[in-house]
Specification:
heterodimer; A: mainly alpha; two-stranded antiparallel sheet; globular; B: mainly alpha; 14 helices; 2 strands
Amino acid sequence: MELLFQQLFNGVMLGSTYALFALGLTLVYGILHVPNFAHGHMYMLGAYVGFSLITIYGLAYWPALAITAVLMAAAGVILEFLAYRPLRNEPHINSFISALGALFVLENGVIAIWGPQGQRMPNPHPGVMEYMGIIMSQQRLLVIVSAVILIILLQLFIKKTILGSTIEAVAQNPEGARLVGINVDFVSSLTFAISTALAAIAALFVAPIFMLSPTMGSLLGLKGFVIIILGGLGSIPGAIVGGLILGLIEALGGGYVSAAYKDAFAFGALVLILAIKPTGLFGKEVKGR
Amino acid sequence: MKDWRNWIKNNWFYVIVIVVAICIPAFMPNRYTFQIVIMSCLMAVGALSFNLLLGFTGQASLAHGAFFGIGAYGASLLALKLGWSFWIALPVGAAIAALIGMVVGIPTLRTRGAYFAIATMCLGEIITLVAGNWMELTGGHNGLVGIPTPTPIRIPGFFTIDFNNQVAQYYLVLIFLLIVIFFMRRLVYSLKGLTFMAVRNNELLAEAIGINTFRTKLLSFVVSTFIVGLAGGIYASLIGSISPTVASIKITFDFLLFTLLGGMATIAGPVIGSFGLLVLMEYLQFLQEYQMIIFGVLLVAVIVYFPRGFMGAFMKIKSKMKKAGT
């Protein structure tokens, strides 16, 4: 029983960072209608930027997190401007290929700067708490609490502020949004800024728990797609629920089933779901494109 | 007599290319360069088959490298474990790739656009994982070693062709490449090829005029996995050892890069892209770790400014010059 609770705790921790990551991915999909294949690599870049701020410039964990989020938001705006904006009216396959180009640059850029080997970040909150036999490190608890706060703040921003609702407006109908005077270019930049900042924060949350490596982004990127396809592309609640489900599956699977094919099961399930329902579990019918 | 002259007049460019290709072995400075040329031919075949899917049918399959790997593993295992002749193992290995292509194509081709790309990426990842973990069959992460070179062709009393030298290997891949180019030309300019392009341009419209889009996509998928499987089998036999990296997404990205920079939806594009980029990579050897960054930037720049790649830019200049001439 204790093992089960322990794995559930770890699953919720993992799932909440997945949810943060997938939220950015789904927001961008809503605007662009293109899978942002570089999202996982922005996550990785965020982890490395934060790592450098802490180890080289000697910043404390939380200020470093805030600065990284701002820097990566800027990087997201630049990415959108260079690689996606010129292709907005082209066939979708073009922006998708452009994303792969960006992915090459990011992965190999990080290897060129920080080297291909893994890095370990010092843990800012090494303390451990115990409750009912479950061992909870402070860092993991903080991750869960902060992720929940961030998700609530994001929801409030999108639903309650005018600026936030422009994102939803553009996602629903770009032409209509333009008609009522929304600057679609600005909304695209804003969405990328938020999405990349969320990915960077998620990366820095787990960085002290796991290792950093230049390949950490590509696998997570793929998992991100599994999550948002499960939850329906472009759906915000779907991303949150999907992220938590995947986190729990992985934690329980890692504890009870074989580890070598762990990733294969998640991807296999996705292929199976798409075979039965080509638009994802909670996906709406796709309009003809 | 006149027919013959006309034919030369219309096709002089291709004749020159083929003559140059036949004479290349005489000008190779060393084994290393020669090896790169041989690999370029094989990669060109892979890129051509990828182009059939992406360029002509409009389906971005990210599992193409995995099928290259299945062809490589299939042909090698048949030759190593069952002692089959290369000439039988190669098509059977490719047929296995095509069969798996059909089995996975049926569920994934029901999806469209982004979903298809993601689903095939997941499939590719699964195939790479299996290649790395199925110890008994694939040798795990160490891969397979000692794969025999293609079985010699013997015609008693006349000649024997041995494939343990680079010249013979070069002509093998060259003939293979020419056959594939010829086949692709016939295919894409046939009625079938037109239905491929109809599906690419507008799937719903194609369906409305009576094309079975699912069967069309599946045919394109199976043909292209068969050809890439052949390329994989020859690759394994010439290199002599393989590891799960031959099935990785890296190979898919290479095909994508070659196809796009050369020119999507043209026959010459993927071939020019493969040779051009592999040679360029050699010249950029000193840049090493920055190489892929440069190619990434190139990929974005090409898709933004020349979506049709080198061939597209070439055609544009050609038509402009024609206009200026008249």
